[in-house]
Design goal:
The complex is a heterodimer. Chain A is of the alpha/beta class. Chain A has helices at residues 47-54, 77-87, 103-112, 121-128, 144-156, 174-191, 202-205; strands at residues 3-14, 21-32, 36-40, 62-67, 70-71, 88-91, 162-166, 194-199, 210-215, 218-219. Chain A has a domain at 34-57 and 85-212: Rossmann fold. In chain A, helix 4 (121-128) packs across helix 5 (144-156). Chain B is built from 14 helices and 12 strands. The chains are: A alpha/beta, B alpha+beta.
Chain lengths: 222, 359
Amino acid sequence: MDALLEARNLVKVYRTGAAPTPALRGVSLAVRRGEFVSIMGPSGCGKSTLLYLLGLLAAPTEGTFLLAGTNTGTISDRGRTLLRRRHIGFVFQRFNLLSTLSAEDNVALALRLRGRPAGTHARQILAAVGLEEKRRRRPGELSVGQQQRVAIARALVTHPDVLLADEPTGNLDSESSERILDLIGRFHADEGQTVILITHNEKVAARAQRLVRMRDGRLLDA
Amino acid sequence: MLPVANILARKVRTTISVLAVGVGVALFLVLVGLTGMLREIADRTTNVEAHLMVWPASDQVVLSGGLPADKVQHDLETIPAVQRAVPVLRWPLKMADRVQNVYGIRPEDWKIFAGPSAIVEGRALQSGDEMVIDTRLARAGPYCVGQTVQRWGRSYTIVGIAREGVAGRVFMPIQTVSRAMSQDVLRASFFYVRLAQAGDVAPVREAVEARGLRVITFDEYYDVLASSFVDMDLVIGAVVFVAGFVCFLVILLTVYTMVVERTREIGVLKAIGASRLQIFGLVMAEAGLICAAGIGVGFLLTWGSRSLILDLQPLWTVEIPAVRFVYAAALAAGGTTLGAIHPALRAARQDPVESLRYE
């Protein structure tokens, strides 16, 4: 089966400060449609950088990245934005909900940015994550677990090909973490959602179909 | 949705920004409106059944010592195209706490200035120590028909009140004013000249100037008056600049602060699919909302300020034609746009990864 994402020898060097900092040192990874992959490694190993490259938030210094068959190295910033809109959903460790909007409006925002009417989609997906009754609450009025569920709803309301989750349980207690992982697992199992989840936690990483370890900017097994 | 939510999330800052834009708008409308006082004076002064004014050549239009009234009137009326020359003796008189220019005229010339229909209360001038005032001065005083005014060591009775818009706010018999000025010979500050044909200005001007006098047509009068005071264009230009600069500066500061505060949020927006153009548009929309609210507040402040000024100084004029509200809105919008562009571009160009890592 063709890979949905294919990274070949990705290198990322940050040139801030006196000396350049290599964050990725030649990462190759292929993920098929419907796979659930976790990337595990200690802090500072380059997990987040890899995720940002896979999510087209940054461009690699070297290497090739194909997303749904498109070579992202040859496209403009606007092209990357359009690809990201079409194929990628993000979930962050710190939820990153907009504090001035309600839960429903946070989810609907993802649709509106794509020029689509929100309609009832936001409400439906909030119901799917068990938060329909709290749809009018602002993030500050929700628990951390609930906020992360809203963030997952926001990421999935546009039916992206890939869900990229950056330490989604990093700020949660164990009970909330389990609920979030169950939720992600359910979307993967029931909807065939492709998931790439990064974590430093073995237990969280074990939830995935495939575990890839990372250290010092390199994958130890792909 | 998001721009509205964002500006409402910072109520104090938004209020201050809106007020600042509003003050800029009101400043422009009221201060430029005050320059309308000269226009009001010019409009009144030329609201006469004549075509031009004849002044001594050397004197300023604002205050003139005098020409021999009878002699010059007769001389002017010998010019072929001149139908009538009407002498006016102007002299300052304090009423309603402000110096008014008294129009000393021959009572029989009243019909040139306004006619009987302009008298709304009392009667027109006849002779002696009497005066006719306009409705605006009557309200400001307040004054009424029958009331006496003590000036120049004598009592003068208000015998009539004329509709606002007549040439002077105070009319008195020219002989009365001349006596008060202790003139040996009846003099006139200037003459209104009525022509047989409105188009005869050029030959009349030539003939009058040959007599060592100065002609000012009604079309020219406002410019001549304005030149006697400070450079109006300079004043208006300064006011426009300050008003626009206030809007620009306030918006620049507000929007820049907003963008820096929401660095992380901008990264999130990009991560969930916002393009550079959408980020730029969101920031500009927030600035636009502040501007729109500021314009509304500015109009209200203008209305309030104008009412207060006219309450405190009823004889002042704050002229604000409807089109000037459009100019004021455009000025605010222009200042706002210029102020918001740089921070909006900054937001649009922010690196999403750096933004997401921003604490």
